[in-house]
């Protein structure tokens, strides 16, 4: 029986991983101790991790498993 849902279990697992990475990135940006968050963690490390999380989310949405023959 073929599933009618647009996403598979794998899609949802990758989405959850991407969401956790997004939360991690925003948390890193918020804990920067420099004035107004203008330190390394707030301006460099956090945004790189957030962008990685968004890329993982895009991959999770566009991923389609190979069909079994």
How do the helices and strands line up, and which of them pair or pack?
Blueprint: H1 9-30, H2 40-62
Describe, in plain words, how this protein is organized in 3D.
With 69 residues, the protein is mostly helical. The chain has one domain (9-62). Helix content is 65%, strand content 0%. Helix 1 (9-30) packs antiparallel against helix 2 (40-62). The longest helix has 23 residues, at 40-62. It starts with 8 loop residues before the first helix and ends in a 7-residue tail after the last helix. The mean pLDDT is 91.
What is the mean predicted local confidence, pLDDT?
Answer: 91
Shape: rod-shaped
Q: How many strand units?
A: 0
Question: Strand-and-helix sequence, N→C?
Answer: HH
Low-confidence stretches: none
Task: Based on the model shown, name its key terms.
69 residues; mainly alpha; 2 helices; 0% strand; rod-shaped
Summarize the structure.
By secondary structure, the protein is mainly α. It has one domain (9-62).
């Amino acid at each position: 029986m073929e599933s009618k849902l647009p996403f598979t279990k794998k899609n949802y697992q990758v989405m959850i991983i991407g969401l956790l990475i997004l939360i991690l990135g925003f948390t890193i940006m918020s804990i920067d101790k420099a004035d107004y968050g203008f330190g390394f963690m707030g301006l460099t490390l956090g945004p790189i991790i957030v962008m990685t999380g968004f890329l993982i989310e895009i991959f999770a949405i566009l991923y389609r498993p190979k069909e079994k023959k």
